[in-house]
TrEMBL record:
This is Xrn1 helical domain-containing protein. Keywords: Membrane, Transmembrane, Transmembrane helix. The chain crosses the membrane at residues 6-25. It comes from Stephania japonica. Residues 25-92 form the Xrn1 helical domain. The lineage of its organism: Eukaryota, Viridiplantae, Streptophyta, Embryophyta, Tracheophyta. InterPro entries: Xrn1_helical. It comes from the Eukaryota.
Length: 109
């Protein structure tokens, strides 16, 4: 599980919300992303810079990503797709190329 911590009014929160909606719509095909209701950090955090005020009213959210369950990948086109007929003719097959080493060996004889 992956954790992401972000401020409530950060610009990326809107993009994150969009990504969470995509995860829900896909049925978790590529994993699940959700916002945790548990507090990520306390409301007051001591400042990392010496002689500065304590950070108050800290608003950090916790976003969790859960990997998808193991399942076999079966590639197939979606329902309703009309697959074109595959046709290969003799003119489509190119002749095999002679390697440069074989050319130079033949001309040296």
């Amino acid at each position: 599980m992956v954790y992401l911590f972000m401020g409530m009014w950060n610009f990326w929160i809107f993009i994150l919300h969009y990504l969470i909606m995509i995860c829900l719509l896909s049925g978790g095909m590529n994993g699940y992303m959700y916002i945790s209701d548990k507090p990520a950090c306390s409301a007051e955090v001591s400042s990392p810079i010496k002689d500065t005020k304590m950070i108050t009213r800290n608003k950090v959210i916790s976003v969790l990503y859960k990997c998808p369950p193991l399942h076999p990948q079966i590639p197939r086109p979606p329902e309703g797709v009309a697959m074109p007929q595959v046709l290969i003719h003799k003119k489509d097959v190119k002749p095999t190329r002679v390697l440069w080493s074989e050319k130079s060996a033949a001309s040296a004889r």
